[in-house]
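> example.struct
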């Protein structure tokens, strides 16, 4: 059975995609899912840096056919009894910069057939280039990370439009990061939803918000996973809640399909 592929993108850079991808991997592993986190920021890989790991696996070897997924992924412990796997290129190498869809499509095919996992989280790079949009369009679900920065909204709209153009029907799910409170999160999500409804004829679902939280910056600077370092902090709780929604959606879908 194929894993559920969840891509995380934003268009705009620095919205918190990697922080959310790493933290969702941690939270979903704690909910019993076998998770692979793929750092698909092919030019500027940095998930392993946020995790404080010496190396994040051998994505380069996988893409050039020298490694299998089994040997290319590395295990990331997260708590005494839990772990997820990470597949990334070496940080600072810039190995796959500008490789575009030529690298994305074979990687997607490998991830789609990785049946040793329940879930593959794809941490996308900034921008809306061909590689980013092919990962976003082929995923089972695509989380679009917005922030209160007005440029994030316009970039997210472009992302939504390009995704619709490729898929014909699909809208991303909205996650608002760095919001001051629930009201601001909802307001930002509503602005994108209203534009998408009026001009594109689709209604992206609002998954929830993650508050601006100084502990996040602290954890990122320490290169220590947020959910291990500050498990009680509001941003960690919000990401756990979003992970529960994602996990719940899979558990509902599977019996309907008669597969589990
Ligand atoms: N909820 C939050 N509260 C406070 N700071 C945050 C929050 N989320 C992310 N940040 C900060 O934003 C910065 C960027 O985060 P991150 O690297 O995860 O973004 P990104 O979207 O992956 O960036 P890029 O586009 O470069 O890949 C980090 O320094 C992190 O500390
Ligand atoms: Mg990133």
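> example.seq
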């Amino acid at each position: 059975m194929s894993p559920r592929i969840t891509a995380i993108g934003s268009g705009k850079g620095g919205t918190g995609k990697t922080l959310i991808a790493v933290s969702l991997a941690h939270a979903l592993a704690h909910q019993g899912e076998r998770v692979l986190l793929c750092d698909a920021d092919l030019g500027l890989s940095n998930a392993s840096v946020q995790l404080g790991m010496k190396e994040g696996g051998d994505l380069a070897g996988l893409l050039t056919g020298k490694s299998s997924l089994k040997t290319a992924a590395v295990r990331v412990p997260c708590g005494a009894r839990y772990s997820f796997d990470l597949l990334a290129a070496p940080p600072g190498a810039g190995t796959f910069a500008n490789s575009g869809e030529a690298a994305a499509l074979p990687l997607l095919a490998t991830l789609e057939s990785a049946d040793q996992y329940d879930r593959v989280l794809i941490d996308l790079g900034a921008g809306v280039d061909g590689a980013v949009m092919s990962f976003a369009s082929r995923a089972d679900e695509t989380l679009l990370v917005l922030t209160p920065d007005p440029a994030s909204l316009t970039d997210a709209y472009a992302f939504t439009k390009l995704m619709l153009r490729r898929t014909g029907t699909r809208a991303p799910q909205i996650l608002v990061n760095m919001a001051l409170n629930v009201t601001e999160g909802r307001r930002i999500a509503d602005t994108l939803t209203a534009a998408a409804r009026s001009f594109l004829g689709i209604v992206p679902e609002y998954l929830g918000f993650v508050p601006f939280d100084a502990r996040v910056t602290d954890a990122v600077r320490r290169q220590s996973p947020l959910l291990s370092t500050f498990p009680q902090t509001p941003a960690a709780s919000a990401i756990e809640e979003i992970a529960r929604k994602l996990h719940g959606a899979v558990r509902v879908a599977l019996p309907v399909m008669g597969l589990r």
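> remarks
The longest helix spans residues 234-257.
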